[in-house]
Amino acid sequence: MAAVASAIPPSIPAHVPKSLVFDFDHFTAPETKSEPHRRVSQLLHKNAPDVFYTPRNGGYWIVTRAEVAVDMLRQVESFSSSPQFNHFKAFNPPMLPVQADPPEHTEYRRILNPKFAPGPVGKLEVYVRQLARTIIDDVYPRGRCDFIEEVAERFPVTIFLKIAGAPLSDRARLVSIAVKYTRSPTFEERQEAISDMAAYLREKFRERANAPKDDLLTQIVQARIPDRELTETEKEGLGVLLFFGGLDTVKSVLSFVVSYLAQHPEDYKQLVDNPALIKSAMEELMRVSGVSTPERGVTHDLEYRGISFKKGDRIVFLTQLWGVDDQQIPNPYQVDFSREVSQHYSFGAGPHRCIGSHLARLEVRVFLEEWTKTVKQFSVENHVPVKTAGGVVWTPVVLPLTWPVAN
Amino acid sequence: MKIKVDRKVCAGHALCAAKAPDVYTLDDDGYCNSDGQTVPAGKDEQARFGAAYCPERAITLFDESGKEVR
Predict the structure, then answer these.
(1) Which residues of A make CB contacts under 8 Å with B?
(2) Is B22 inside any structural domain?
(3) In chain A, which residues have their Cβ closer than 8 Å to the Cβ of B28?
(4) Across the interface, do B28 and A70 touch by the CB < 8 Å criterion?
(5) What is the dihedral of CA B33, B36, B40, B43, to 10 degrees?
(6) Residue B45 domain flag
(7) Chain B nearest-CA residue for A280
(8) Pick from B30, B49, B52: which is nearest to A117 by CB?
(9) How many domains does chain B have?
(10) Which residue stretches of chain A have pLDDT < 70?
């Protein structure tokens, strides 16, 4: 389907000057297929304008530089999250809070923040560690694993389903819906995934309305914004986003982090020899492992940094590139655990900062702490290059790992 | 040193409190609530480190004379 779409001759709107056009598709570009952070950065940071227009997928702007992006993401009056200004995101139900602007956004966020703040998330550490142990003990004796299926799709997804209150037996079904959303370039396929997820949630919300539990599903069912209850559409929108976030993004980040370590044994050895380093090394690893692509729509005709935008223009932010932006950080492709500050925006910036960031950090840290205890060295099976995929969320697609097993 | 936090800009990354736990504290939603506080004695370096980690650049530090500290 993507190939057919790419074959259609591109059209450039009249307000976009030729000098700002660069042909790049964040779903299918060859540079997204392996080592995407370095390769897409080398392509775009070196050859494309910092804000450019690509004719792919119906035409949209792409922002590649952290400083520009962080500034734009704060200007919510000009660059809106509302689907009203970005018809590529006009899904039903709209995903919340990401598809709302302040002040509504703030109200939705208030419902979820207390559950995802560092305090309550920290209380999950014992459980997260037990689960990491169970999974590692399970795969270790075999001396190999398919990391994505056997670890990355099990570990964060099991934790999320526990928090949400969804049964583990629904895991495969839910993961396949999330993958369909994050890897499909067409609006129709992504809408289908959203409808499937909303249908699943409707059923769960009905169960919780009758029999409340101590879980996220119940919290959404019972949520209020100051003067009213949430509509069914709002509840579904909140649920859809949380489920996509919980089911796909940590899986992708953890797989990028582990795939880097599998290919850089000297860096991995530092963590094995000095586990106390993991806490700070983790930020450096996440700096080169960003996965998500938030979007905004332009609210009115405007000029920004000398560029004319028209109302309804679609803007895609490649957060993946902000940690490898040479205007932000020296030697950006070099992972260096001795950097004093590993500045990155892998969890986005501005009011829509990833709500799951504290949970994601906990999961990556605890996983590495347990993995280094057991697996003293490991590599990618046959040392093949790790295949990755672009899309709304970037990810490694296969990650076979091997390690020597002590008798 | 005095801490100034732009609460409008703080997005709850919580890296300040993670990197400088003796200096910065968070509210129940996970946003920095150290605005207006004084850095505890001997914790200046930690305060600077936590501020440098803020992805939003929401934290500014001032010395006794009211001059911005970098």
Answers:
(1) 70, 74, 110, 113-114, 116-119, 340-341, 343-345, 347, 349-353, 357-358, 361
(2) yes
(3) 113-114, 117, 119
(4) no
(5) 80
(6) yes
(7) B19
(8) B30
(9) 1
(10) 1-10, 407
Are β-strands B59-62 and B68-69 bridged in parallel, bridged antiparallel, or unpaired? antiparallel
Range of the domain at B52: 2-64
The residues in B 3-22 lying below 8 A from A, measured between CB atoms, are: 9, 11-14, 17-18
**Alpha carbon of A274 to those of A264, A340, A369, A403: distances in Å?**
16, 17, 10, 19
- Does the beta-carbon distance from B29 to A117 stay under 8 Å? yes
Domain ranges of chain A: 71-295+350-402
| A351 contact residues in B (CB cutoff 8 A) | 11
pTM: 0.92
Question: Quick check: ipTM above 0.95?
Answer: no
**What's the gap between Cα A23 and its chain centre?**
23
How many Cβ contacts (< 8 angstroms) between chains A and B? 50
Whether A357 sits inside 8 A of B13 (CB atoms) is yes
Distance of alpha carbon A162 from alpha carbon A74, whole angstroms: 33
Cβ-count burial A311-331 (b if 16+ within 10 Å, e if not): eebbbbbbbbbbbbbeebbee
pLDDT score, position B9:
93
Fold entry, domain A71-295+350-402: Cytochrome p450 (1.10.630)
Going residue by residue through chain B, which has 70 residues, state the pLDDT in tens, using 9 for 90 and above: 999 999 999 999 999 999 999 999 999 999 999 999 999 999 999 999 999 999 999 999 999 899 998 7
Q: Evaluate whether residue B70 is within a structural domain.
A: no
- Tokens read off for A205: 């919300």
Residue B9 lies in a domain: yes
Judged by CB atoms closer than 8 Å, whether chains meet at B29 and A110 is answered as yes
CATH code of residue B59: 3.30.70.20
